[in-house]
Amino acid sequence: MRATLAPGRFRLLLLSLLIFILATTVSAPFPNARIVEYTLLAITVGVAIFELRAPGQRRLVPVMVAASVLVVSLVDYAQRLRHLPLVAGGLVAIFAGIVVWLVYGAAMQSHRPVGDRIVGAICVYVLIGLGFASVYETLDGVIRGSFRFPADTAWTASGPLRYRYFSFITLATVGYGDVTPASALAGTLASLEAIAGQLYIGITVARLVSLSLVERGGSGERSKPDP
């Protein structure tokens, strides 16, 4: 546990993701909620790019997508054009997918400390939930009524929070049933996220254990005296 919490790779990314989720939720009822959301989004995107700083890591594509996310989100905040939020949501989903791919690959390298692997795996899990939330929000904007939000819940108010809630509930396969997909496409995406959540946990745990066993075996062989 001490090694996990020690300074290292991906800690800053995890912290920025948690702050983004909590702060946007707390600030949602206030008039300046959109300013807070854009500011935290810019910080989180910048931290994600910073975490991909490993030598030889290709960052051109994620940097271009990140710049597109920030520019489109800023224009949407200033102008509120009709279809711009959908474009912004789609770009966020694409950026989250790219970061998931790169962070997972970097976190599961053989030379990586165990603490970095665990924190990186948590970051990927959170990013998967946020990425699917953007996909759901974009889908519901393109095809109205893709999700059913009961009137007696807090999720009737329009905004990204209800899609984020549904995404993480689906990813964890909890299934409270208060928010439900109302179209075939939405249901299919939710099913894919639930499958991805279960496979991710199983595969990641197996990968972490395998890497630890290989490293222990290698260190044991190096510690044996020569005959």
Description:
This protein is mainly alpha-helical and 227 residues long. The chain has one domain: Helix Hairpins (Orthogonal Bundle). It contains eight helices and two strands, in the order ααααααβαβα. The chain is globular.
Which terms would index this structure?
227 residues; 2% strand; mainly alpha
The CATH first-level class comes to Mainly Alpha
Gross morphology: globular
Mean pLDDT: 85
Sequence of secondary-structure elements: HHHHHHEHEH
Helix content: over 70%
CATH level 3 topology: Helix Hairpins
Q: Architecture, CATH level 2?
A: Orthogonal Bundle
Q: What is this structure, in a nutshell?
A:
This protein has 227 residues and is mainly α. The protein contains eight helices and two strands.
Explain the layout of strands and helices:
Elements: H1 2-5, H2 11-27, H3 33-51, H4 60-79, H5 84-107, H6 114-142, E1 147-148, H7 160-171, E2 180-181, H8 184-223
Antiparallel strand pairs: 1-2
